[in-house]
Amino acid sequence: MRLVVFDMDGTLIDSVALIVETVTAAFEALGEPAPTEAAIRAISGITARDAMAILAPGADEARIERITNSYRREYQSRAGRAREPLFEGALATLERLRHHPDTILAVATGKGHTGAVTLLGAHGVLSWFNSVETPTHNRGKPDPQMIETAMQKAGASAAETAMIGDTVHDMRMARAAGVKAIGVAWGYHAVVELEEAGADIIVDSFDGLERAIDKLLGA
Length: 219
Known about the structure:
The structure is a single chain. The chain is of the alpha/beta class. It has two domains: 2-14 and 85-217, HAD superfamily/HAD-like (Rossmann fold); 16-78, Orthogonal Bundle (DNA polymerase, domain 1). It contains ten helices and six strands, in the order βαααααβαβαβαβαβα. The protein has helices spanning 16-29, 37-42, 48-55, 61-78, 90-98, 113-122, 145-154, 168-177, 191-196, 206-217, and strands at 2-6, 103-108, 131-133, 161-165, 180-184, 201-203. β5 (180-184), α9 and β6 (201-203) form a beta-alpha-beta unit. The chain starts with a strand and ends with a helix. 45% of the residues are buried. The mean pLDDT is 94.
């Protein structure tokens, strides 16, 4: 058995432009100074509230709540398949993996559960995943609970599991869960950051991703 757990934003879903635009609009709507693109890219993968707290250092609880609610409003007005496409090669790779006789797929994302399943459904791939783990029902990254829940539902051990993601939060979550960590070079965080966060392998294409899974978990 192999359990392959995917992050969404920056790994399967090309959402960089949307997230930068949405965070910027959320701050501007409240008359707050907008964070830089580099700062916004750094917070991808964690919960919206935790992200807004980082982007508004020193803010009190009420201010963080206002910014978070503004972000959610701006995101809901923009989100959807057209603005959040799958990366090139993602669909074909998922198709091959789901037909592998010993492979189970899952998702561990910082998106809320409703948004995650809606987007995966819009792309026609929701049923391909054994479970979709989110901070709605688990602790957020880099806490390992999402991976642990996915393993429990799949009946997989840590030795049989790999986490695939584009951020240091994904790599740290994988290390905390005791599973293999595969970083992808096309997302939010730089390769050197992924390496420093504990990635076992970094890949720069979806073709390379399949080879990495075979190497770490067996073919």
